[in-house]
Design brief:
The complex is a heterodimer of chains A (about 300) and B (about 270). Chain A starts with 17 loop residues before the first helix and ends in a 9-residue tail after the last helix. Chain A has helices at about 20-25, 35-45, 50-60, 70-90, 100-125, 130-135, 140-170, 180-205, 210-220, 230-235, 240-250, 250-260, 275-295; one strand spanning about 30. Chain A is built from 13 helices and one strand, in the order αβαααααααααααα. Chain A has one domain (about 35-300). Chain B is globular. The chains are: A mainly alpha (about 300), B alpha/beta (about 270). At the A-B interface, helix 1, strand 1, helix 3 and helix 6 of A face strand 1, helix 2, strand 4, strand 5 and helix 3 of B. Chain A: Belongs to the ABC-2 integral membrane protein family. Chain A: Keywords: Cell inner membrane, Cell membrane, Membrane, Transmembrane, Transmembrane helix, Transport.
Amino acid sequence: MSQVLHTPPPTRAPADGDLAALAARHGLSVSGARPSLPQYVRQLWARRHFISAFATAKLTAQYSQAKLGQVWQVMTPLLNAAVYYFIFGVLLGTKQNVADYVPFLVTGIFVWTFTQSSIMAGTRAISGNLGLVRALHFPRAALPISFALQQLQQLLFSMCALAVILLCFGVPVAASWLLAVPALVLQFTFNAGVSMVMARLGAKTPDIAQLMPFVLRTWMYVSGVMWSIDSIAKHDDLPRIVTVLLQINPAAVYIDLMRFALIDSFQAHQLPPHVWAAAVGWALLAGIGGFIYFWKAEETYGRG
Amino acid sequence: MAEHTSEKVPTVVADRVDIVYRVNGTGAGRGSATAALNRILRRGQAEKAAGVRRVHAVKKVSFVAYKGEAIGLIGTNGSGKSTLLKAVAGLLPVESGHIYTDGQPSLLGVNAALMNDLTGERNVFLGGLAMGMSREQVKERYQDIVDFSGINEKGDFITLPMRTYSSGMAARLRFSIAAAKDHDVLLIDEALATGDRSFQRRSEERIRELRKRAGTVFLVSHNNKSIRDTCERVLWLERGELRMDGPTEEVMKEYEAFTGERKPAAAKA
């Protein structure tokens, strides 16, 4: 503590307004200030190649330490489906109520996994990539969006496996399979939006990442992944509000849309009411709301 | 830098900057669950009672940096050099005062990691794209970046995952990626201290090049020689205060006298 041997020589302290005026005269901007929303969108668009390259890189890096490598992209969802089939199809016998139970279940699991992993990855998007955030300057929304995109790519792998499973169980190829494309676009927008909300929360309070698996598991069980919301809504005498909540649940909406698109025995009357409106509504609400919510804290990410 | 002549263009202006860290989990009931709960419930008010300590890391620092300057930041450990750099880069909020910059300063630290599971090659592309280069630009400069880093001097390492690199190799690759782009303001934190002698020479050369292209370079280092070799102006921070600001030789002489004075004192104790 013997460092203060002599007081520092008084530095030529400029008058109060001097430096600010100098900065203003040369058009300097405040460091680390948040850009306006249109500016932010433009910056983000300029980094679109980064977003897609980052997603692809993450996807391939995922199994880079495994001996079988990229085979796991397809193996993991298939094994998941097998486990759930064993528990809910064989042990608990849920399948009695549902026609084409295996395609029904597998579609549900794959579509749900897309939402679940996007949100989990989003929660850690900032807090798990502080090195990148602190080293390089880019619009931070690129990270959660990129993670959602990675999960979409992962889902496309799963969809290839799903197509094979569907054909094996005698589900015919139909024109309605094309409906999967708009359903996926809407679901992706929804996922990316929720990811951005979770990314901001997770950046401020990393503890949330510990809590999310429980929240997500609860959400999965009420989303009709392994049972049919439609048959519950019809046969059980549930209060009306519970039925509506089950049907308006965004995860259930996207899962049932995909089933409707892919499985011929899953008819339109089994869909929740106003399903496309709900799908678009949730996508817009989460997508735009999440983006703005994330942008509002842009300058704080990576600090502290 | 008394002569504010009109032809000199400022790139960074720090106007009486204060930076304060708040550290959780100190003081009474340190780290206990009740202290944590207290902190959450009583956020804002009574920080001290909730076990939050304030560390005043940078105190009323003002300076103006101009285009084409290479500025060294010196001071003993914990004097606030890295903190000040982070604030200039816009990564730390200032408590009071303002930092104005021309464009977006880029902080280049040796410990900021790229993605360990990806190959060096992928990291070069990602780093370039993240800095805002186009795909064509990255492709164009890819070979230069790899050659500059010298990663491939001992075999084909660039196609191996980063986790297999030594810390020196990773730091060299990071520096090479960041230095590939022309930055308006480049902030370097001890980068030259890592890497072997031949890489240090190359990076000094690269910094001179960057300066020629009318950027400003800040360099934090404990290596007095690399400060002398690259910088012509030095800011000396001590205990968060700006102690001296002037031509390299002048400040370095004072600084060496200051650190030299401490040695016999420490030996006696």
